[in-house]
Amino acid sequence: MRRSKSKRNPLLPDPKFNDLTVTRFVNNLMYGGKKSKAFEIFYNAVDIVEDKTKENGLEVFKKALENVIPSVEVKSRRVGGATFQIPQEVRPERKISLGMKWMISYARARNSKSMQQKLAEEIMAAYKSEGGAFKKKEDTRKMAEANRAFSHFRF
Question: Domain holding 91: CATH number?
């Protein structure tokens, strides 16, 4: 028999914007339990975005995150000795989580001086529907589209 679902710890909204999405993003951004440093990096990145775009930094961030959130993904399934990539809808919680992780990983891979600068550049690129995280979303969508014929193997 399966074990019961584990209960999730409640998230507290962040101190500056009072927003749960920001807290989730910062939790993904954090290294080694250094949450205050992660908040500092995020807030500085939002300030840089505000300076460069002349718009509300939090709104730009939310729009950027919305642009990189995937709707479908492919999962591998072994059927009779062959492995197929089967397109599947992404659960709402996982959508947001994937989008955040992609943004952070592509921000870390950028060439800039500081993490604040890298994150700000990735947020602005995602806001304009370009950059690494947006490309990853489009590649995932195209792969799902190409493997649409195998969707009857869904599990």
Answer: 1.10.455.10
